[in-house]
Design a protein that fits this description.
This protein has 2 helices and 6 strands; from the N terminus they run αβββββαβ. It has 89 residues and is an alpha+beta fold.
Length: 89
């Protein structure tokens, strides 16, 4: 799946529309099954999207890097989050 990377000169548009939040490495941003009340834009760093199986295993779905938006599909569908997302850096 190809994802669009937002050019740095447009970052200010996203900052004006929302607010800045800092996450430490390994800190959860949202969990599988959470309500999808917002979308996220990565200004700096990387995050890991992963699925937790019924047996408790974590399966990495994707590493998402700066300049990308995530969480939009479940937000727009108004459904629960299908994966967990945690900060990497």
């Amino acid at each position: 799946m190809h994802q669009i990377k937002i050019p740095e000169e447009l970052y200010h548009c996203f900052e004006a529309a929302g607010y800045r939040q800092h996450y430490e490495a390994n800190e959860d941003i949202y969990m599988q099954g959470d309500d999808a009340g917002r979308i996220y834009f990565i200004r700096k760093g990387r995050v890991r999207a992963y699925y937790v199986t019924y047996q408790g295993r974590e399966l990495t779905y994707e590493i998402i890097e700066k300049g990308r938006i995530f969480g939009e599909s479940s937000f727009l569908s108004q459904c629960a989050r299908p994966v967990c997302v945690a900060a990497v850096t």
